Amino acid sequence: xxxxxxxxxxxxxxxxxxxxxxxxxxxxxxxxxxxxxxxxxxxxxxxxxxxxxxxxxxxxxxxxxxxxxxxxxxxxxxxxxxxxxxxxxxxxxxxxxxxxxxxxxxxxxxxxxxxxxxxxxxxxxxxxxxxxxxxxxxxxxxxxxxxxxxxxxxxxxxxxxxxxxxxxxxxxxxxxxxxxxxxxxxxxxxxxxxxxxxxxxxxxxxxxxxxxxxxxxxxxxxxxxxxxxxxxxxxxxxxxxxxxxxxxxxxxxxxxxxxxxxxxxxxxxxxxxxxxxxxxxxxxxxxxxxxxxxxxxxxxxxxxxxxxxxxxxxxxxx
Length: 318
Ligand SMILES: Nc1nc2c(ncn2[C@@H]2O[C@H](COP(=O)(O)OP(=O)(O)OP(=O)(O)O)[C@@H](O)[C@H]2O)c(=O)[nH]1
Ligand SMILES: [Mg+2]
Known about the structure:
The protein has two domains: 171 residues, P-loop containing nucleotide triphosphate hydrolases (Rossmann fold); 117 residues, K homology (KH) domain (GMP Synthetase, Chain A, domain 3). Helix content is 37%, strand content 22%. The protein is built from ten helices and nine strands. The chain starts with a strand and ends in a 10-residue tail after the last helix.
């Protein structure tokens, strides 16, 4: 049977479970996941290989996780929404994911309108059914079918893995015949140092509340692989001195806690020992600076590194 492949973007409101789904389908932690909305800021690509013998087709799903759809209020938000719009353009299939336990509201309507505008084939995924009253499921499916001509409406639990085999097979069946775009052992196109920056940002999100996580971004300033040891220095940028004080904590306690937790995650990712240094820096109003948001984007950095050549280290100011 002919091999199938294609580009599939996951779209939905903040917190719907997009990144949890990406990780579950790929089988690796590529995207950070927290209970806070707007955790994801960039498109994250994950590659899923589906091998079948017999009647079902085999294929490769090139999945794209996206930031949650929201109303942009600053340059960072606008950039995040651009990532969403870029991801839904020109893909073969959209996966619109909603939290089945929440009412379909204005936010969901906004996402659905994006889907309708693209005119793309779309599956609706009712996520978090592990928390849903079973009797609600059938009426809910019927309600969603009224809203749009979805190619499929599938109940899943991205966290518990329920319904994911069915989803995977349905996605492959919906894709056109095509080549294997990525080698079998490749799970993403994002270099490790940027996954590392995200793992650090995840700890910041987990360790801080209110405005601080949203005012924070992480930049890798030094990254050296020396055999079994990787030396990493990263800057955590925030917007105000008060936020810096919170991030550092009493006698550096918070920074130390985040550093230790991030280091363990990074060691698991890289399979090496890691020496991690974290610095906190203040950059007033960075979220409103288009230039800063652009410069700190991993793709911009990657481009710059490839121009700089391997000998040039990004500058550090400590
Ligand atoms: N109970 C339950 N919780 C889930 C499920 N999927 C995701 N979650 C939780 O929902 C929260 C948000 O998950 P994420 O995967 O970060 O959601 P997201 O859509 O990527 O969110 P943003 O990146 O902020 O747009 C986390 O606390 C997850 O553990 C699920 O199937 N069941
Ligand atoms: Mg996410």
